[in-house]
Amino acid sequence: MATAPMALVAAVLSPSHGPRGFTSKAVVPPSNPRAAAVPHRRGRRSSSARCAISTVNSNGRLAEADRATAAVATVGLQDLQATPLLRRERHDEETVTMIARVTVHTDSILQDPGKWSFGSIADILFRPNWLRLELVSSELDPKTGEEWEISSYAHNQGRHDDTEFTMVLEASFAVPVSFGPVGAVRVVNEHTREMEIGGITVFREGEESDSDAVTFHCNSWVHPVDKRTFFPLNSYLPSQTPEGVARLRKEELQAIRGDGQGERKSYERVYDYDVYNDLGDPDRDLDTKRPVLGGKDRPYPRRCRTGRGFTKNDPLSEKRSKEAFYVPRDEAFTERKNLTFKAKFALEALNASGRKIRTKDHKSLSFPSLAAIDAMYKDGFRNHPEKDDLDLWSSLIHELEEELGHFLQFEMPEIHDKDKFAWFRDEEFARETLAGMNPLSIQLVTEFPIFSELDEATYGPADSLITKELIEEQINRVMTAEEAVKNKKLFMLDYHDMLLPYVHAVRELDNTTLYASRTLFFLTADGTLRPIAIELTRPKSKNKPQWRQVFTPGSDGSVTGSWLWQLAKAHVLAHDTGYHQLVSHWLRTHCCVEPYIIAANRQLSQMHPIFRLLHPHFRFTMEINAMARNQLISADGIIEGSFAPGKHCMELSSAVYDKFWRFDMEALPADLIRRGMAVEGKDGKLELTIEDYPYANDGLLIWDAIKEWVSDYVAHYYPSASDITGDEELQGWWTEVRTKGHADKQGERWWPMLDSRDSLVQVLSTIIWVASAHHAAVNFGQYPYAGYLPNRPTTARQIMPPEEGRKGMRRLALEPEKVLLDTFPSQFQSTLALPVLDVLSTHSPGEEYIGTHADPAWLAEGKIRSAFEKFRGRMMEIVAEIDDWNEDPERKNRHGAGVVPYVLLKPCYGDPANKTTVMEMGIPNSISI
Fold it and tell me: Which residues form the Lipoxygenase domain (predicted)?
């Protein structure tokens, strides 16, 4: 039954029906969107620019969470009375009446009705003066030389959109004919509650549909203590800023940076940096103390500063919040996304709750059989897209009914649905290094013999036991080992030097173990990889010498050898799955992108063309990262509890960042070349070492399309290199990325300098690639591939039988299946991991996909709109190319009996909810899940 506030709102407004998708409400830009627009005398329209109409228009709410497309500034309410510019109107010249129509989104009342009293809702609906608007001219007042503003209150009109939970207010202005083009709209919320402003349309009375309309978009929260400034869609470099709003542009940037003091409040919009010192909770439990990530000892990217105080038991650890971690207000999820995300997570947890309750006191309890693992999944209940054609409440009820109908059972992962024995086959083990959820680790072997770079005195002998003789035996002596290296036939998953320093520490933890590993593959004549050797190593200690052994695919022809090979694969898969989660996924996308977002908001005005290019690729990333710090990567969080290497997970990601991460290697071509998976040909094009490498094949198509789009965009706004070097905001952003966001890497010489169009295009393309396609490639395949635990165990719990000696080998001979099940994650660990993998693999309602979502500012500029349409068209061509490749029987890494087609980098076309699986729904613009 509705509460009184909700009942009152429902009586006046209509409920939401469906997502507020941008693409379904595209703006038709004016015929001359770059022209300045100003009021004119009624009935006497001149042909000059000064006689066009001036419009600030939202055209409805265009994007569910495009909250900051328009620029903003924050000023205290006390400043409202101090400025002499308010209500400065001309009384000595003719005026025209301009109407400002404002949409206010009230679905926040539905999200948290408990915070809304009957009086506050009545206040918003019936109080005449709670929202004040100021129109700001883009020109200075010719008489005073000061900014020129006109103020008026907006009044409730009692209108609402049929598909949006919105209310409409209107303000009337008497605007002097000489006022000039409108350069900004300032909004003052005098209500007691924060309000989400959807859009503001300013038009000459009676001519709201004028074709000369200039569009502004808000979609942003305005708190009672704020005075917010929204700029038009016209993009300007700092040197091109209209005089009338030049001060506001700088004021906005200054306000958003904050002063670095105090704890941030949930309603604030302050962007600042801090180290990762909030992952532990030593005041609750000293065992959860975690080292600070960020600084000389443990280099790491920076996160958003929250300003909480420090714990009593560790002066370096920040207190954990009982509520969600602070993120700047406009970075937070929309109400629909937040409710859906929480509902999905809660329902997945419900699926696992019964099994967790039964096993929480026996966290090491293994599955009794492979059949028991299969019983966790409901056949026919598959990992599929969620329908997005229902309103919020209907979709939640639909999902609840579906989940309850499969209580204690999970969706069937696609890998197991396609082939029940895929997890056991060596062909699939190898194929997934090229077309699975972590295709970023496979590398070419360029030197032989293989050696470790670690200190022999600390860890033991550096040479590998994968010898020339062993390789040649495994490849049936079709060539020598040296020839195999020379002919680029040997490839490797190398987790040896990375994991060896952590082996002893991880083995002290409960319910897990660790080795360092090397896995060698041979490229066959049909273009597929065949695993030929796995080397597992335990480093030496004070009491024990180094232990290591090489396992091969049953070369001795014995059953025991086959089981040992399967156990060795389980260990390698646990290493690869942990590395995927901590490095390929978390570190290289979520973690490293956050500094770009913080720096962009601090240094780039929201009327800056580069901010408007990047902004769609930053959507929701800071919020999902804050959730990860709170629940996933925190001490005793889900990642530590169910993934290798346990409590040392984040330390490992720091070590990889220190030794491995380089911005200039994050572009796809550079990454492929670094791993030996491609070389640059004489014509400048890449030549792949493995021709049928689905991640690289599809990724290079996307990369080239992104780079062409960015090149067209940059060329329009920067005619020369001097425009780039002279752009103080752009240079300030890139300097801050290097010196603050990635402060521990600021001295590296590999950072690109923004001194030409080529360098700027490369930097921007890299960021867009990482935030969109790279993330899609490593995120949405998690549940389809790792949701079936034997296919990709998240951790390994038992040491190899040969290391245990005669006792271990005797147990293997008697109970081989039990040894394998004891090596797989426990039932408890599985029920921690599976819900998270499923949630992370889900596309959000109202998702914005690359090549389909256009920022309103792009559409307002003719050449940029044309460039984007070309980009969109190229995406559709790529869809057809990928479809052809997936049907090509010669491409055995993506086609064949039981083979899961590679569609993780297939662009969105049509309705994503109509696709067969979540993996083919498209490439989201941003890291939003």
Answer: 235-929
Q: For residue 169, report the phi and psi dihedrals to the nearest 5 degrees.
A: -125, 155
**Axis crossing angle, helix 694-717 with helix 862-886, rounded to the nearest 10:** 170
| DSSP bridge partners of 491 | 444, 521
DSSP one-letter code for 200? E
Contact call for residues 595 and 741 (beta carbons, < 8 A):
yes
Residue of 506, 501, 517 lying closest to 656 (CA atoms): 501
CA 858 to chain CA centroid, nearest Å: 22
CA dist 528 and 895 (Å) reads: 12
- For tokens 């600070």, what's the residue? 292
Nearest-Å Rg of the Cα atoms of the chain is 29
CA distance 574 to 683: 40
280 Cα distance to chain centroid: 23
Taking the C-alpha atoms of residue 16 and residue 68, their distance in angstroms, rounded to an integer, is 22
Length of the chain: 929
Helix intervals (H) in 520-619 = 559-579, 592-603, 609-614
Phi, psi angle pair for 172, to nearest 5°: -115, 135
Classified as helix, coil or strand, 883 is: helix
**Which residues in 280-316 are b (16+ Cβ under 10 Å) and which e?**
bbbbeeeebbbbbbbbeebbbbbbbbbbbeebeebee
Backbone phi, then psi, for 193, in 5-degree steps? -115, 155
Neighbours of 115 (CB within 10 A): 11
Task: Say if residues 375 and 343 touch (Cβ distance below 8 Å).
Answer: no
Report the distance separating Cα 754 and Cα 763, nearest Å.
8
Give the integer Cα–Cα distance in Å for 775 and 853: 17
The structure tokens listed for 851 are: 């090549």
Cα–Cα distance for residue pair 460/539, rounded to 1 Å? 6
- DSSP run (H or E) holding 410: strand 410-412
In whole angstroms, give the CA distance from residue 139 to residue 390.
47
Q: How many CA atoms lie within 13 A of 334 on its CB side?
A: 27
Q: What is the DSSP string of 307-320?
A: ---B-SS-TTSBPP
Query: What is the percent of the chain where pLDDT is above 90?
Result: 65
Longest dimension (CA), the chain: 103
Taking the CA atoms of residue 845, residue 850, residue 852 and residue 854 in that order, the dihedral angle to the nearest 10 degrees is 100
Of 106-120, 559-573, 709-723, the range with the lowest mean pLDDT is 106-120
CA angle 903, 796, 378 (to 5 degrees): 50
Q: Which residues are catalytic?
A: 585, 590, 775, 779, 929
Distance, CA of 105 to CA of 85 (rounded, Å): 29
- Which amino acid is present at 46? S
For residues 848 and 194, the model is more confident at: 848
Pick the closest to residue 331 from 393, 264, 237, 395 (CA basis): 264
Predicted TM-score (pTM) of the model is 0.88
Q: Which of 73, 89, 222, 82 is nearest to 149 (CA)?
A: 89
Instruction: With CA atoms as reference, report the closest residue to 567 among 546, 581, 547, 553.
Output: 553
Residue 379 CB coordination number (10 Å): 10
Task: Kindly report, residue by residue over 441-454, the tens digit of the pLDDT.
Answer: 999 999 999 999 99
Q: Is the pLDDT of residue 397 over 70?
A: no
Query: In whole angstroms, what is the distance from residue 285 CA to residue 61 CA?
Result: 46
3-state class (DSSP) for residue 78: helix
Amino acid of residue 769? W
CA angle centred on 921, ends 777 and 793, rounded to 5°: 45
Q: Which residues, listed in sequence order, are joined to residue 678 by a DSSP beta bridge?
A: 688
Hey, what are 448's tokens?
A: 């032989």
Q: Number of C-alpha atoms within 13 angstroms, CB side, residue 21?
A: 19
Whether 542 and 511 have beta carbons less than 8 Å apart is answered as no
- Of 61, 258, 71, 74, give the one whose Cα is nearest residue 161: 61
Residue 167: both structure tokens together: 């209310």
Query: Is residue 715 within 8 Å of residue 757, measured between CB atoms?
Result: yes
